[in-house]
Amino acid sequence: MERHLTSWFSPSLQKEMPIVTYGNYGFALLLVPTAGADYLEYERFQLIDHLAPFIDAGKMKVFSVDSINKESWMNKQMLGEHKAIRHNQFNAYIYNEVIPFIKNATSWDTPVIICGASLGALHSMNLFLKRPDLINGVIAMSGVYNLTEYTEGFFDDQVYYNSPIHYMPNLTDHGILEQIRSSRNIHILTGSGSYEAPDAAREFAGVLYNKGINYELSVWGEEWTHDWPTWRAMLPLFIDTRF
Question: Which helix (H) or strand (E) holds 138?
């Protein structure tokens, strides 16, 4: 498997941001890290090894970015307003820098599917729903879709507009809704074991249903906990059977 590391100074985040790429061909899978982790997390926990057969076969090319959660919602010394500002800068980094990087590394017609686990699932779902013109689908594993789970009581307009459970019920923009509805790759995956939140997944699926949005909800059993063995099982299965 070809593996390539690169970085650039991000105008959006005003810092050097690394990215790792695996493979050469296929649709683009963009991985967003869990809570406090980095761009090599999915490799470190052997998820990339489990995806290797699809990467080597040219089914997909994988891109994994760094997180800035420790500079936003995971930073207990930071004011809530400042956390929200940093969060929006990360969104801009993905839209204005990472997506063009992916397109230049593949083609402008290559579909981009965004994927994350835990807090990465929330970010992935949010990034997709806000810009379905740039991102073609989402695989969200073991997520909650309520950003206030991470804001320690802080709530303002920017929390609202980055919290899918809050803004999606009120979304009326027909153009954006139609772009979301056109995706056939909205996958909400969760276990039912320790530290999983299957009810959060069901609640958010209900929001999508009420908006006429096609999605797939897959709730696994109690033996599947909020941990890497679950995600190492989930993601390759869905790549193999849905793409």
Answer: strand 137-141
Position 80 scores a pLDDT of: 87
Q: What is the DSSP string of 164-233?
A: HHHHGGG---HHHHHHHHT-S-EEEEE--STT--HHHHHHHHHHHHHTT---EEEE--TT--SSHHHHHH
Statement: residue 183 has pLDDT above 90 = yes
Sign of the C-alpha dihedral computed for residues 211, 73, 116 and 130 taken in this order: positive
Structure tokens at 19: 């990215």
pTM tops 0.85, yes or no: yes
Residue 239 has pLDDT above 90, yes or no: yes
What sign does the dihedral 8-9-12-13 (CA atoms) show? Answer: positive
Q: Are 191 and 142 in contact (CB under 8 A)?
A: yes
Tell me which CATH code domain 3-242 carries. 3.40.50.1820
Nearest to 240 by CA among 17, 51, 15: 51
Q: What mean pLDDT comes out for the span 41-62?
A: 97
Contact 1, 22 (CB under 8 A): yes
pLDDT for 78: 87
DSSP 8-state code for residue 139: E
Tell me the C-alpha distance between 235 and 141, whole Å. Answer: 8
Look over the chain and give the mean of its residue pLDDT values, rounded to a whole number.
96
The whole-number average pLDDT for the span 17-31 is 97
